[in-house]
Structures are given as C-alpha cells and as structure tokens.
C-alpha cells in the first residue's frame, strides 16, 4: 500500500536520512511536499528525483532559483513563510517535521491542525510552543511520533505500559565533543571543533547545541511535554558511547532501554513504519566490539545549559520560548565567529534573568511574539544583526 509523505526541511541532515530510507523503498511512498529554506538547487533535485507534488522554499528570494531548477517538471513551486504552512497543511499520511529552529513551528502547527501524524524532529518548535502545541494535538486528534533518538527510545520503551507505572525516565547524553575539556579549552573552542560531534553526523545548529549540552536541555523540555511524568521523574545521564538512547524505569524496579547504532535512520525508520517495523541498511550493534558502556552525572559547572533549561521549564510560561530564542541567536553568533563558545550559555542566562518575562503564551501568535522579542533582546545583548 502506498503512503503519502511530506518532508519539511528536506535538504537538511534529518531530511537526507529520511529520503535515504524512502529511496530504498520508492514504491511504498508518494511524496507530496518537500521544503527547504534557500537550498533551491538541492531541493529541485530532490523534488525531481522523488516526483514531489510541490517544492517550497521558506526564503522567498530563493523562489526564482527553485522555479528555474524545476522548469518543465510540472512540479508546483512556492516561496515564503505562508507557503510553507500551506504545503504543510496538505493532507498526507505522515509529515516529517525537520526544519531547524522555531522557524519550523508555524508549519508544524499547520500539519497538526490537519489532524495528521507528525514525525517530529524539530524540537525547538515543541520547546517554544509546549502547551500550545500539545493542546492543538489533542484538539485536532493529531499524533506526534518523536524522531529525536532519545524520545524515540522512550516512546518505544513505553509501548504496552501505562505512563502511571513509570518511576523515572533517563535521557542519555553523549556529552558532545567537549565532554572532557577544561574551562580554558572551552573558552577557546572554535565552530569547527564544536560541529565535529564524536558519534553523530548532524546539522550545524544541533551540533553546537550538543557541544554546549543545550541540546540535552531542549530535550529535557521536549520530554516533559511528550511524556508527562513530572519533572521530578526526568533525569539526564551522560553516556559517551551513545549506544543506549534512553531508558524508562518502572515502579517494579524494571528498567527498559532502547539500544541501537548512532544513526538517525533508526529512529526515523521507527516513525516511518510505526506501528510496525521496517528494514534499514544498518549493521546491528556489535556489543562485544563496543565492550563497555559508561555513565556519568552531567557537569553543570562547565556546561550550565541543562540547568538553564531545567530552570526555564520549572518557571514555565514564556521562559522555554525565551530560552530557545536566545539560544538560537547565540548559536548563530558563535557559528559566525562573533562570540566565544562559552558566551552562548552566559547570554541565554542573561536574557532569561532580565526582568519582565512575558506572560504564558496562549496561542501560536503569542509564542511567535515571545520568540521575536527574545531574539531582538539577544541580538542587542550580543551586538549582532
Ligand atoms: P539541518 O541544518 O541539517 O537542516 C535544516 C533544514 O531546515 C534544511 O532543510 C533547511 O533548509 C531548513 N530550514 C532552515 N531554516 C529554515 C527556515 N527559516 N525556514 C524554512 N526552512 C528552514 O538541521 P538538522 O537536520 O540537523 O535538524 C533538523 C531538526 O531536527 C532540528 O530541530 C534538530 O534539533 C532536530 N534533530 C536533528 C538530528 C540530526 O541528527 N540532525 C537529531 C535529532 C533531532 P536549507 O537547506 O535551505 O537551509
């Protein structure tokens, strides 16, 4: 049976892993919408290869290039933020939400409003919109499948069990490329060093988030919304080998863990085939070659981001959206060479500590307003455009 799929953020790392799996089983899928921000040539190539119905660039100034790349193909083209939402609201069996950052929020909400099934990689959307998004999911009868490897692991470990029986959820963290670095080394870390993750091959923003540990902080907030067991039952453990992707401990003392290769095609395949299973091209884990698994408590002195995320979600209201927006600006400033690595977390903390946190957002527009205001404050603080 053919299923229809749209991929938001098709030209990125998660998009590429998703399309790799689809390419191996072409006849099982009908591709409806593929989107990018401005990688017009790459998007046109993918749209032709997969016979997409429509290709959309978020940045309208790139629409001309997209049109040129798709001329004569019969594939529809569009550009701009509204066009992304319209493409995301085309009915499909599965939407893969893989845009990076809060830029993906409005398209994800458009897909949710169709009551469809959404494989969510775009964690920043859920961190920023939290209750607004989970309420919309319930209201429209949508289904969220977590793509993030940790949340996908937890989702798998929860199958067949009652959430009331969960004693604790453990999110594992690789610790990133700087896990063993001193404070002095961290102060001098370069963007090239930060994006060189030891276990995972990912886009630049999430790679930097992994290096600061903000990725785990965002995931902590994401887990809070996806698996409502209470913050006191959520913890983070550093596990440098990235073999166990997360664990669920039950009240009878049993702990279920999901293990797998550090390749996003595993959790993506779990979403594509859900509630069944499918083949992937990956070698099974060789546990004897891995030999040892180790675990450490996070060091919040050198990596304060997990503390900031915990404080933001405990504060609730607009704080997680402010945290996310400030982090997006600081990561972009670091990648552009404007600020040192350790200023990322410092500036997020400074923005969160500014008085007058806005009231809790009640609608998508409220979230976007909070996001924009926090971005403006972060740009001002960091003196970036
Ligand atoms: P990439 O940077 O590799 O790709 C991002 C995608 O989003 C690209 O298609 C990009 O288009 C598009 N995009 C960027 N900005 C905008 C915008 N303003 N409007 C519309 N589209 C935009 O990111 P990743 O694939 O690494 O990550 C995607 C999401 O998945 C993130 O939220 C990340 O946290 C999450 N995730 C990623 C994992 C990974 O292994 N990579 C693992 C778990 C979660 P263009 O090419 O034109 O810039």
Uncertain spans: none
Structural class: alpha/beta
Q: In one word, what is the shape? A: globular
Oligomer: single chain
Strand content: 15-25%
Element string (H = helix, E = strand): EHEHEHEHEHEHEHEHHHHEEEHHHHHH
Radius of gyration: 20 Å
Mean pLDDT equals 97
How do the strands of the widest beta sheet line up side by side? 4-3-2-1-5-6-7
Number of domains: 3
Total number of strands: 11
Bound molecules: NADPH dihydro-nicotinamide-adenine-dinucleotide phosphate
* Number of H- or I-type helical stretches: 17
Question: In which range does the helix fraction lie?
Answer: 40-55%
The profile of the biggest β sheet is:
7 strands, parallel
Q: Roughly how many Å apart are the termini? A: 49 Å
List keywords for this structure.
385 residues, alpha/beta, Rossmann fold, Rna Polymerase Sigma Factor, Chain: A, 3 domains, seven-stranded parallel sheet, four-stranded mixed sheet, binds NADPH dihydro-nicotinamide-adenine-dinucleotide phosphate
Describe the structure.
The chain is of the alpha/beta class. It folds into 3 domains: 3-146, 3-Layer(aba) Sandwich (Rossmann fold); 148-297, no CATH class; 316-385, RNA polymerase sigma factor, region 2, helix turn helix motif (Rna Polymerase Sigma Factor, Chain: A, Orthogonal Bundle), CATH 1.10.1740.10. Helices cover 46% and strands 15% of the residues. The chain has helices at residues 13-23, 40-50, 63-69, 81-88, 105-113, 123-140, 149-158, 183-187, 191-195, 204-212, 214-226, 265-273, 287-290, 305-315, 319-335, 343-353, 364-382; strands spanning 3-8, 29-36, 54-57, 76-79, 94-97, 117-120, 143-146, 166-173, 234-238, 244-250, 255-259. Strands 4-3-2-1-5-6-7 form a 7-stranded parallel beta sheet, sandwiched between helices. Strand 1, helix 1 (13-23) and strand 2 (29-36) form a beta-alpha-beta unit. The mean pLDDT is 97. Bound molecules: NADPH dihydro-nicotinamide-adenine-dinucleotide phosphate. NADPH dihydro-nicotinamide-adenine-dinucleotide phosphate binds at residues 9-15, 36-39, 58, 84, 98-100, 103, 121-124, 148, 200, 202-206, 264. NADPH dihydro-nicotinamide-adenine-dinucleotide phosphate (NDP) binds at residues 9-15, 36-39, 58, 84, 98-100, 103, 121-124, 148, 200, 202-206, 264.
């Amino acid at each position: 049976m053919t299923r229809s799929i749209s991929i938001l953020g098709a030209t990125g790392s998660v998009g590429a892993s998703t399309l790799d799996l689809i390419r191996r089983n072409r006849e099982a899928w009908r591709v409806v919408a593929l989107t990018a921000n401005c990688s017009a040539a790459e998007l046109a190539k993918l749209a032709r290869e997969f016979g997409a119905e429509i290709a959309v660039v978020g940045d309208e100034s790139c629409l001309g290039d997209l049109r040129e790349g798709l001329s004569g193909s019969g594939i529809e083209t569009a550009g701009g933020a509204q066009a992304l939402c319209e493409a995301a609201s085309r009915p499909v069996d599965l939407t893969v939400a893989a845009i990076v950052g809060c830029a993906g929020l409005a398209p994800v909400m458009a897909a949710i409003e169709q009551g469809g099934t959404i494989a969510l990689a775009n964690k920043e959307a859920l961190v920023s919109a939290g209750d607004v998004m989970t309420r919309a999911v319930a209201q429209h009868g949508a289904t969220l499948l977590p793509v993030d490897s940790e949340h996908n692991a937890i989702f798998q470990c929860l199958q067949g069990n009652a959430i009331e029986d969960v004693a604790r959820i453990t999110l594992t963290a690789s610790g990133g490329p700087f896990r063993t670095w001193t404070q002095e080394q961290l102060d001098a870390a370069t963007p090239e060093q930060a994006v060189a993750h030891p276990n995972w091959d990912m886009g630049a923003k999430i790679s930097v988030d992994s290096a600061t540990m903000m990725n785990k902080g965002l995931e902590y907030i994401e887990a809070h919304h996806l698996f409502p067991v209470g913050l006191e039952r959520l913890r983070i453990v550093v596990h440098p080998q990235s073999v166990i992707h997360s664990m669920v401990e039950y009240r009878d003392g049993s702990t279920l863990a999901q293990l797998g290769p550090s390749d996003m095609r595993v959790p993506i395949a779990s979403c594509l085939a859900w509630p069944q299973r499918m083949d992937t091209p990956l070698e099974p884990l060789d546990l004897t070659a891995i030999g040892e698994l180790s675990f450490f408590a996070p060091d919040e002195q050198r990596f304060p981001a997990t503390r900031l995320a915990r404080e933001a979600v405990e504060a609730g209201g607009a704080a997680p959206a402010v945290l996310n927006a400030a982090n997006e600006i600081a990561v972009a400033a670091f990648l552009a060479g404007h600020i040192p690595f350790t200023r990322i977390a410092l500036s997020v903390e400074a923005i969160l500590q500014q008085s007058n946190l806005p009231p809790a957002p009640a609608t998508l527009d409220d979230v976007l307003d909070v996001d924009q205001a926090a971005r403006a404050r972060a740009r001002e603080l960091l003196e970036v455009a």
